[in-house]
Specification:
Mean pLDDT: 92
Strand content: 25-35%
Largest sheet: 7 strands, mixed
Radius of gyration: 21 Å
CATH topology of the largest domain: FAD/NAD(P)-binding domain
Number of domains: 2
CATH architecture of the largest domain: 3-Layer(bba) Sandwich
CATH class of the largest domain: Alpha Beta
Length: 323
């Protein structure tokens, strides 16, 4: 059987695409990945929100909601609308022929008239055991200041951001709205960010630069209490008291399986043909969420793109005479 629509990836983008495609009677099937381990992180279906504790900025949840709980509600709603779930990942695709050919992690072949890619992007971490333990338990370590910085646990507290690029400075600047002080920890003695972003950081009285330092350990049992730093010049170690640590060293889009199949940018993000739509370099393949968005990376924007991708796919299929 040739599927009308195959959705690759879960999370807000994939599940929302499933809701809309299901309501359009496209009988979509969603490959929601499978539990696996990357470094010390256990990857499970549901995207980055599966590692987020309280979500306060998604509409419809005035008292907040736990990330895993919200993703479970998304999944249930997609299934209720007729989206079929498969707990395997897509490991290989061939977009050079019609219908499109896809192979899952058990090497089973799936054919599809249209494909929606919603595989997301994973945050780059330092790789420290305590960092990852506290990130997964809600202990004050995060990779998204805009997502978590306004939470009560971080207000009027000393916080730190690791990184030296535009993203790190943007995160640190945002945190100065809530923190008592924000440290920017960078392994070198000058920033990699643009001149405008550097000026913003160096002129902010609530921000302090920690030069030539790398974080070698995150301190604290249930909640972070500080970090251990290694000086890249003197080789000495020191500690810095903190109540929150934000990792700002970039993200990696989950597009390795798409190599040579469609246009990606230099960082691996899917390139959209039209910034107002979800069309890609391959006619009939659409992209939604963080896999095609290196700017916003929010649950609400990913969900919005999932909606657009399903609508784009429905209209494209109709134009092909496939209903």
């Amino acid at each position: 059987m040739i599927e009308k629509v195959v959705i690759i990836g879960s999370g807000p983008a994939g599940y929302t695409a499933g809701i809309y495609a299901g309501r359009a009677n496209l009988n979509p099937v969603l490959y929601a990945d499978e539990p696996r381990q990357i470094g010390a992180f256990n990857i499970v279906p549901g995207g980055q929100l599966m590692f987020t504790t309280e979500v306060e900025n998604y509409p419809g949840f005035p008292k907040g909601v736990m990330g895993p709980e919200m993703m479970e509600l998304f999944r249930q709603q997609a299934e209720h609308c007729g989206c079929r779930m498969v707990g395997r990942m897509i490991s290989k695709v061939d977009f050079s022929r019609r219908p499109f050919q896809l192979w899952d992690s058990e090497d089973q072949l799936i054919e599809a008239h249209a494909v929606i890619v919603a595989t997301g992007a994973t945050a780059n971490w330092l790789g420290l055991p305590n960092e990852q333990r506290l990130a997964q338990s809600g202990g004050g370590v995060s990779a998204c200041a805009v997502c978590d910085g306004a939470l009560p646990m971080f207000r009027n507290q000393p916080l730190a951001v690791v990184g030296g690029g535009d993203s790190a400075i943007e995160e640190a600047t945002y945190l100065t709205k809530f923190a008592s002080k924000v440290y920017l920890i960078h392994r070198r003695d000058k920033l990699r960010a643009s001149k405008a972003m550097q000026d913003r950081a160096l002129n902010n009285h609530k921000m302090e630069m920690i030069w030539n330092k790398v974080v070698v350990d995150v301190l604290g049992d249930n909640k972070i209490t500080g970090v251990k730093l290694h000086d890249t010049v003197t080789q000495q170690e020191s500690t810095l008291e903190l109540r929150g640590l934000f990792i700002g060293i970039g993200h990696t889009p989950a597009t390795a399986f798409l190599k040579n199949q469609m246009q990606l940018d230099e960082k691996g993000y899917i390139v959209l043909k039209d910034l107002y739509r979800t069309t890609t370099s391959v006619d009939g393949v659409f992209a939604a969420g963080d896999v095609a968005d290196s700017v916003y990376r929010q649950a609400i924007t990913a969900a919005g793109m999932g909606c657009k991708a399903a609508l784009d796919a429905e209209r494209w299929l109709a134009a092909q005479g496939i209903e």
